[in-house]
């Protein structure tokens, strides 16, 4: 067999998997409105880009160090590469992490069992609805999954290798993962690898000075962003990054203050988050337990690792459905092990039925996430609203000349409307914004409370309100043009509309 023939036989299937994965993660990515937590990441990254302050994260103008800085830096970096902060640059870090996760699952499966196992695990993962869904969402959750898989993959390249360079790379992967969401970047890889390290007294080989030195280097790298914030951030910022790490990762685990869920949360959501392949890994778990003494040691490790991760998340009093995401790749890997094992026992290759099942699952996900979701956000909504506001305002003055004020009337997160020159100014309910009066009184109040001067002819006022309620700050309509958001295709189809957005654009031809 020639080199080219060997390369083709070994990698053609992988290239197909990675190509389909890229298509599923990218199709229609920029055509969906911001959803849920994406608004926070968008707002914080936007304020970093507009203010030039990358060390002090702000949400709605207030200090917000809820997550470490690098998850925001990834977004600002992609915005710099693409030339703008938009839906693509916002979500691209998650997309890349999800794509790499599919590749890493393939590599782990190949290292532990066989290439067939790796390919099946990769196809199961990329055809899992909630994995693809969160892989297209701008948060730190899929970034954490990718970091966990990268650490496990690196360990399995040489579990008995005690070189300093091996330790350095491993612990640096843990440090970087922990800088994306929290200390689970250190905890999760340690838990899932613990059974393998303890087996055959393997841990004794790794108790050495080289490991301690590599760990010290990784801890120093982990502390760099927090040190930069402390030394060079704004003196008046008022929040400690390390203090919030302690609060969000340690205090929340033992004394949860939000996201309280019942103890059986993950018994429900692990099967849901692994659909449509939940029955496969559940059967695989049953088979593994039934034949425990006769299955491969790596399969036993996988079951132990999954069990420890499940117990860890269940032990925490703070529980949410998507916290189960780090378990999903390993559950699918367990299912892939069982399928490949059956094929090997029957001396068969992956049959047409499995290929059709993977194809149908991927096709359905493409239709739902890549076609239907973008269509449902069209015909109106926030994205069209932003374009309408920009067009109307730009007809009076260059877009970069406008200042933007967000009035938080119903405690909603601010709209994502881009302006490349000036940052938003946020007004929350507790600031006693004038609900009655006229535009002159509102502008005077803004000047007084902010300490800055707002040009009445170059200030856009944004607000949100519940559908059917009177317009917030309706008195501005006397001397402002009013632009309201329209119902999008999805809400039109479901015949619902919960909130509406409104923008007031100064009417320079009027009384102003």
UniProtKB/TrEMBL annotation:
Gene Ontology molecular-function annotations: pentosyltransferase activity
Segments forming domain Glycosyltransferase RgtA/B/C/D-like: 66-220
Keywords noted in UniProt: Cell membrane, Glycosyltransferase, Membrane, Transferase, Transmembrane, Transmembrane helix
Transmembrane segments: 12-31, 90-108, 129-156, 168-195, 207-228, 266-289, 301-317, 323-340, 352-375
GO aspect biological process, one term: response to iron(III) ion
Membrane topology: Multi-pass membrane protein
GO CC, alphabetical: plasma membrane
Subcellular location: Cell membrane
Database matches in InterPro entries: LipidA_mod_glycosyltrf_83 (IPR050297), RgtA/B/C-like (IPR038731)
UniProt protein name: Phospholipid carrier-dependent glycosyltransferase
Organism: Pseudomonas helleri
């Amino acid at each position: 067999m020639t080199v080219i023939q060997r390369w083709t036989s070994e990698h053609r299937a992988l290239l197909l998997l990675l190509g389909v994965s890229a298509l599923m993660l990218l199709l229609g990515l920029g055509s969906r409105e911001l959803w849920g937590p994406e608004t926070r990441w968008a707002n914080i990254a936007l304020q970093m880009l507009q203010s030039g302050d990358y060390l002090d994260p702000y949400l709605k103008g207030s200090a917000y160090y809820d997550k470490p800085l690098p998850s925001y830096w990834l977004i600002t970096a992609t915005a710099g590469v693409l030339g703008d902060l938009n839906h693509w640059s916002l979500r691209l870090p998650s997309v890349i992490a999800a794509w790499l996760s599919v590749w890493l699952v393939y590599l782990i499966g190949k290292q532990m069992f066989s290439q067939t196992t790796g390919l099946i695990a990769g196809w199961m993962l990329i055809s899992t609805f909630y994995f693809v869904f969160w892989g297209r969402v701008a948060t730190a959750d899929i970034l954490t999954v990718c970091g966990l898989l990268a650490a496990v993959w690196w360990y399995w390249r040489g579990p008995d290798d005690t070189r300093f360079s091996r330790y350095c790379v491993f612990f640096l992967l843990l440090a970087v993962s922990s800088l994306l969401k929290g200390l689970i970047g250190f905890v999760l890889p340690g838990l899932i690898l613990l059974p393998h390290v303890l087996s055959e007294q393997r841990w004794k080989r790794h108790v050495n000075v080289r490991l301690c030195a590599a760990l010290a280097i990784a801890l120093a790298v982990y502390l760099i962003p927090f040190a930069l914030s402390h030394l060079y951030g704004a003196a008046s910022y008022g929040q400690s990054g390390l203090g919030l790490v302690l609060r969000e990762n340690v205090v929340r685990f033992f004394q949860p203050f939000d996201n309280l869920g019942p103890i059986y949360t993950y018994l429900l959501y692990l099967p849901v988050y692994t659909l449509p392949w939940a029955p496969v890994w559940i059967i695989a778990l049953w088979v593994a337990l039934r034949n425990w003494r006769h299955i491969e040691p790596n399969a036993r490790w996988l079951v132990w690792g999954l069990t420890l991760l499940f117990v860890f998340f269940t032990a925490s009093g703070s529980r949410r459905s998507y916290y189960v995401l780090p378990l999903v790749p390993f559950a699918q890997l367990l299912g892939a092990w069982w399928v490949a094992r059956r094929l090997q026992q029957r001396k068969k290759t992956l049959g047409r039925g499995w290929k059709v099942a993977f194809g149908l699952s991927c096709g359905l996900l493409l239709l739902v996430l890549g076609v239907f979701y973008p269509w449902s956000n069209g015909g109106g909504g926030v994205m069209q609203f932003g374009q309408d506001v920009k067009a109307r305002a730009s007809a009076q003055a260059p877009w970069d000349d406008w200042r933007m004020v967000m009035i938080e009337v119903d405690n909603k997160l601010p709209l994502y409307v881009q302006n490349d020159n000036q940052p938003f100014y946020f007004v929350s309910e507790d600031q006693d914004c004038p609900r009655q009066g006229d535009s002159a009184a509102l502008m005077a109040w803004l000047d007084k409370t902010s300490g800055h001067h707002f040009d009445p002819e170059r200030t856009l006022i944004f607000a949100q309100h519940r559908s059917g309620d009177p317009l917030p700050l309706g008195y501005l309509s006397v001397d402002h043009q009013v632009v309201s958001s329209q119902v999008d295709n999805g809400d039109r189809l479901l015949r619902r509309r919960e909130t509406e957005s409104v923008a007031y654009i100064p009417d320079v031809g009027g009384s102003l």
